[in-house]
Amino acid sequence: MQGILTYVLVVVLVGGWIWLNADSTRENWNSRTPRANAPVLAMEVQEPVDAPAQSPPALPPEITDAAPVNGNQPAIALILSGAGMSEQMTGQALDTLPREVAFAYSPYTNVATLENFTQAGLAANRENLLLLPMEPITYPKDDPGPKALLSRASVKQNTDNLIWLLSRTANISGVMNYMGSRFLTDSNNLRPVFSALNRNKLFFVENAGSANERLAETTARIAKTPYMAVDVTLDNILTEHDIRLQLVALEKRAAERGYALGVLRPYPVSLQTVDAWADTLARRGFRLITPSTLWKENAKNDKNRQNGINPNP
Fold first, then answer.
1. What domains sit in the chain, N to C, each tagged with a CATH number?
2. What is the C-alpha to C-alpha distance for residues 83 and 109, in angstroms, rounded to an integer?
């Protein structure tokens, strides 16, 4: 009985204390409990700060001591590949690039458009080339296009296709392969092609990435067809910085060997970067010349060397 009275007394005392302190207890409890309608303090967010404007990458360093070749400074030739398909970009390229830059036109360009562009090129003393679509290793996944030269096709079929391709325009001085990593590895395929190019007085340019142990060059020599190989593709990465890096590599190649051949495509950044580079080329000790001039100079050098004549006495 005494225990029960003690328990009742404790309950009464505790209950009285809670009733006297109810307001303060509730306030303290609520202060510790998140509420759905409580205002949320916004995190401090700094306004983005514009990074300091960066100047474009510098042009290739001046090379004022580039060794003369044949009494001349090292020579560089350029080819714009894929001209014709975009009339707007081709027209812009014709207006932008120096006349020494040759244009390699797609055979799938509308014939009338192709004629207009190549005539305009001739009027400006610009060289015209035609792209020859050839079978790549990844064919048929990667298809070079209708009338392409194929390793699995007969000689007659390839000959007929070549006749069709060359008939697209008569205003060309040479051709350059489009794809062709498989076709260019078979001399049986190449011999009739180079013989036909020789009969038509056309030179052949092997684009970068397709060369295979110089088989095309050897076959071209046997067929007595003028041959050149691209040294540097300028715009595999379409940024001004990377194009300028490739231009440095092109100049380095020319300084080491006496000449170099580069290729670019009709993209705005390519046209603008190459145009700015060409304006400063002469003062760095280089010449910009056409591909056919490049070949003629090298052919003369080769002949002189074969005859025991030192081109740089």
1. 75-306 (3.20.20.370)
2. 8
